[in-house]
Write the structure tokens for this entry.
Amino acid sequence: MSTLLKLEGVQVFYGASQALFGVDLDLAEGEVLALMGRNGMGKTTTIHTLCRMLPMRYGKVWFAGQDISGWPSHRAARLGIGLVPEGRRCFPNLSVTENLIAAARPGHWTLARVQDFFPRLAERRDQSARTLSGGEQQMLAIGRALMTNPRLLVLDEATEGLAPTIRREIWAAIGALKGEGYSILLVDKALSEIKPLADRCAILARGEVVWTGPPAALDAEVEARHLGV
Amino acid sequence: MVEARREFILNAVIVLALFAVPLWALMAGEPFIISLATRVAILALAAVGLNIALGLGGMVSFGHALYFGIGGYCAGILAHHAFSGTPVAFGLSGTNQMLVIWAVAMALSGLVAAVVGALSLRTSGIFFIMITLAFAQMGFFFTLSWPAYGGEDGLPIFVRNQFPGVNTMRPWELFLLAFGVLLVALVVFAMLRASRFGAALMAIRQNPDRAAAVGISPFGVKLTAFVISGMLTGLAGAMMADLSRFTSPAMMAWTMSGELIVIIILGGVGRLCAPVLGAAILVGFETLFGGWTEHWQLWLGLVLLGVVLFARGGVIGLIAGREGHG
């Protein structure tokens, strides 16, 4: 399997305070990688950096064989990084359909296919996004990322704050995408749901990757040291 | 959904009224009212242009009079040279054919909008407003000190330009022409809003960073919209010069830019028929109160204040509900 995404020694600062202290990460084509860690350890910063929404001071980001370190985020997205941002962040005053077609790029995923995948989005097509429930907004955010026909799907806290039944629906959808061979980068705290889905886990602590390995190798000791509350 | 249907009906009423009033005036033999309706249609066309930038893209251009004036001067200068039989420049002759004039007006205002947009879209908010205003003022003072084409006295069009199959000297036929162009512009606006481009433009207005994260280039999309917007307003300028048979620096004055914004705010920012209703209200006030007091804008100002304070969706939003587009 070839490497799809590679981060090399990425250092990011917010003003004078350093958030990432040299993050190294790679993700192979077709792999599902879970990025884990406690709050404030740099998960979202890492994701925003690889989507080119944050400037780096040192380090490089490679995607699909290209050095995208200096690219603006819209070019990174066009190259195939499909972000489902934390907190969903749909365009609130646009209708569901408008949210989807705004992001559309040619490829397998069309409006009809996304509506098949999430039938609720077809039912709600003319409603403005702000009137949707949290779960529906999450489906819309995933659908919007799929409309860009990405090579890598990046999900930041996809099920945070959702009711258990909705969470199961979202996880089932992510599982279906994995089944189709999608490369996925997951950020989540829900260990029990990540474990069956992820091929590999990486744990961030204080702005560095401190552990990588298969989910099966995540023993109680590692969990307690890096993930426990 | 109810709101969408109500807005559709309201739009139909607005457009039909703009057609019915001059039709009645034609029967009643009131050519002045037909000319007023033509003025409404052309101002509405200019505002449809601005509505693309302001309503869909959230770009508060305070300099759209620049494109209106460029359109006006295209009509004036080309007609002037056609009338006198002298070349415009580089041996190119003038013309009195509206279709040619419109094409030149749209091309030139689009070109200027591309330059102005490329420079001003690097900023946003109050800076964007001020830079667009500054460019329009440059155009205004340039035409003011351009003696070859009348300077501050302006440039008359002695014989109205021609359109195939239309007698443009007849008020009713000229109205039909302006009304037809307005309808086409409204269709263009509706198609643009329903397209991927329109959705991307509205997404950028709501959050440019989020839009960029799904692969939309905020600068490219906004610049394209700004150019289309300038082209439509430029076309309206060329038609307005023909209606009044006169081009002057006043077309580029900052008050003109302000009027276009007022038209859109009165009607409802981003609404399809806001330009038509807003232009009708503006021209209506100007005519009704203008004959009575020269301070008619005081009354318009009060209405505008009321709309801004109590009807943020404009008059259309007040009637059709705030839900809807944008």
The mean pLDDT of chain B is 91. Strands of chain B lie at 87-89, 92-93, 155-156, 246-247. Chain B touches chain A through 22 residues (CB under 8 Å).
